[in-house]
């Protein structure tokens, strides 16, 4: 790692890179993605905040419920108060307030004797309540024009709120709460190959359509030129070349990553795994059967959550002509006897043994 304490790499100020790497191994090390799928990345100060206004619909949908309801409540109140003030000002200019009790007076805003009654006229007009005591008459064209403008504006606010509320309620994030991942990864042998395994399951009877699984390895490293790359992402093959990443998620699935020459764990053995500072991000995507919307669930595994020499217990059994899933055994593992060597060392040992036998 670079020795210069003021070294910059990729926008990150590296004071003491060795201490930084050591800090990530501490008991409360920072995760890139939490176990429940939340990304722990805080954005810095954003200068061009106008970009959020240009996409106002997404900005409103992304707001928390308390701010979302506050924004639309203020929109309604402001329009009611604004048009109530305009009605009051128009009634004052036309002397409708002074002649409110004169039956011979041709009023533009009937029964408006103050700001409160003008506010009620605005509220009744926009919400189409129509109690009948206050109204805009045909004695002034500006009143009819003002009423049309308020009706159009009120319809726009209603449509925007209904659309945003529907999208916010039907967003598929909550569907991800019933998609579960095993608490640990395990590394064991399958068909004489070293494999990394983890489990996923769906608690609902309505299944995900076109479910796909992928994984990323998050690890900081230094290039040969001395550049420090924090949080570099590497792809972990879960079967995208064979179609194994496409799942029929009817029962819990055990996802397999074969550790071969193209795997980032090719040179990682049991002892080296304990010294590594890594994080595996698992992403499950699929279409919600009920709504047709795309849902994504995430989790992560750090190096201390990867169990070397373990296998998952079976959670599927046959019960009265149907398969039964026992989710109490979903996270259970048991230890198996296997070498502590990396896949590379195992391959070299096997090749050496074959060569010795041949000789």
From TrEMBL:
Single Gene Ontology BP annotation: potassium ion import across plasma membrane
PANTHER family attached to this UniProt entry: G PROTEIN-ACTIVATED INWARD RECTIFIER POTASSIUM CHANNEL 4 (PTHR11767:SF116), INWARD RECTIFIER POTASSIUM CHANNEL (PTHR11767)
Stored InterPro entries: Ig_E-set, IRK_C, K_chnl_inward-rec_Kir, K_chnl_inward-rec_Kir_cyto, Kir_TM
Site feature (Role in the control of polyamine-mediated channel gating and in the blocking by intracellular magnesium) residues: 158
Keyword Transport recorded: yes
Main location group: membrane
GO cellular component terms attached to this protein's record: monoatomic ion channel complex; plasma membrane
Family membership noted in the UniProt record: Belongs to the inward rectifier-type potassium channel (TC 1.A.2.1) family. KCNJ9 subfamily.
Reactions accelerated catalytically: K(+)(in) = K(+)(out)
Pfam family, one: IRK_C
UniProt keyword annotation of Transmembrane helix present: yes
UniProt entry keywords in alphabetical sequence: Ion channel, Ion transport, Membrane, Potassium, Potassium transport, Transmembrane, Transmembrane helix, Transport, Voltage-gated channel
Subunit structure: Associates with KCNJ3/GIRK1 to form a G-protein-activated heteromultimer pore-forming unit. Interacts (via PDZ-binding motif) with SNX27 (via PDZ domain); the interaction is required when endocytosed to prevent degradation in lysosomes and promote recycling to the plasma membrane.
Cell compartments where the protein resides: Membrane
Membrane topology classification: Multi-pass membrane protein
Domain of life: Eukaryota
Official protein name in the record: G protein-activated inward rectifier potassium channel 3
Molecular functions (GO terms): inward rectifier potassium channel activity
Record domain Potassium channel inwardly rectifying transmembrane: where: 33-172
Inward rectifier potassium channel C-terminal domain boundaries: 179-349
Protein source organism: Cynoglossus semilaevis
TM annotation in the entry: 67-93, 143-167
């Amino acid at each position: 790692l670079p020795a210069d304490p003021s070294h910059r790499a990729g926008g990150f100020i590296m004071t003491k890179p060795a201490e930084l790497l050591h800090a990530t191994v501490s008991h409360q090390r920072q995760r890139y993605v939490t176990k429940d799928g939340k990304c722990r990345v805080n954005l810095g100060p954003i200068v061009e905040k106008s970009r959020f206004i240009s996409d106002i619909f997404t900005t409103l949908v992304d707001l928390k419920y308390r701010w979302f309801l506050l924004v639309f409540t203020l929109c309604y109140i402001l329009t009611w108060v604004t048009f109530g003030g305009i009605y009051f000002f128009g009634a004052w200019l036309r002397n409708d307030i002074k002649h409110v009790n004169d039956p011979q007076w041709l009023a533009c805003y009937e029964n408006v004797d103050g700001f409160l009654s003008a506010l009620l006229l605005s509220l009744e007009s926009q919400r189409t309540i129509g109690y009948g005591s206050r109204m805009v008459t045909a004695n002034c064209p500006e009143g009819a024009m003002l009423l049309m403008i308020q009706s159009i504006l009120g319809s726009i606010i209603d449509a925007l709120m209904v659309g945003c509320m529907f999208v916010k309620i039907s967003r598929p994030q909550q569907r991800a709460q019933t998609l579960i991942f095993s608490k640990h990864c395990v590394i064991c042998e399958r068909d004489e190959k070293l494999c990394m395994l983890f489990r996923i399951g769906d608690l609902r009877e309505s299944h995900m359509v076109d479910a796909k699984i992928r994984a990323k390895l998050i690890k900081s490293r230094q290039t040969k030129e001395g550049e420090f790359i924090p949080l570099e992402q590497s792809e972990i093959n879960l079967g995208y070349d064979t179609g194994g990443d496409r799942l029929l998620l009817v029962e819990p699935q055990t996802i397999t990553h074969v550790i071969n020459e193209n795997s980032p764990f090719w040179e990682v053995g049991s002892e080296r795994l304990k010294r590594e500072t890594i994080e595996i991000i698992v992403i499950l995507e699929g279409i919600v059967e009920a709504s047709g919307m795309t849902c994504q669930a995430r989790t992560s595994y750090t190096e201390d959550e990867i169990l070397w020499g373990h296998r998952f217990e079976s959670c599927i059994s046959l019960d009265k002509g149907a398969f039964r899933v026992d989710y109490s055994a979903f996270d259970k593992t048991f230890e198996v006897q296997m070498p502590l060597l990396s896949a590379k060392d195992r391959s070299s040992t096997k090749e050496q043994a074959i060569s010795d036998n041949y000789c």
